[in-house]
């Protein structure tokens, strides 16, 4: 089999390290570039352990991506560039079911809930309680980190197998909406902890409901999210409870 090398920038972070593990298990060879400003090399050591013999196919460089781009020739046929965006927006201007041309502002609720559960924050602020939704709070599309990683790999496979693919945009999401309070309740169930809430007014520009249209990814990438919010919260809490201050810290 032809060797398939993948350059992963920011690969030592939470999402990046999960993606690197999935790549290794998919028989890719991976070069990770990360300056470790907001991540830890410990995550990659754990990835290598989990990958077993395939962990030998991981190379890590502590670098800034600009250092590498400076040495690359524009238009070099040996390099292919892929950008993927996934839906997990908290503050987004469009409302409803979003197609492949989103103009939102991606943000992630989960880290804030997690930080309250492990004691790093006193409470979670919920912005907007009077929306026309199931419980008055905003509805968003949340995706499991493994589903996100698998979506990246599905796009990579298409990039390797297709000729002259050009630039394509794919939404990675569940295609279903979950309210802020529903997500909080799911995390409380997974963690066994009560999440203190501060109920606040709407923020300017926040949309009532935002969730991804995923038909294009399902059809063209043969990819579909497999996990729901219960699995997301379970797995996030499993990691957060063991690493309350991040990788490599016992304090």
TrEMBL record:
What cofactor does its activity depend on?
NAD(+)
Q: Which organism is it from?
A: Rhynchospora pubera
* A GO cellular component annotation in the UniProt record: cytosol
Q: Which domain of life is it from?
A: Eukaryota
Catalyses which reaction(s):
UDP-alpha-D-glucose = UDP-alpha-D-galactose
Can you cite a GO biological process for this protein?
A: monosaccharide metabolic process
Alphabetized GO MF terms? UDP-glucose 4-epimerase activity
Q: List the protein's name.
A: UDP-glucose 4-epimerase
The record's similarity note reads:
Belongs to the NAD(P)-dependent epimerase/dehydratase family.
The annotated pathway is: Carbohydrate metabolism; galactose metabolism
Keyword Isomerase in annotation = yes
Q: Which residues form the NAD(P)-binding domain?
A: 7-67, 80-235
Keyword Isomerase tagged = yes
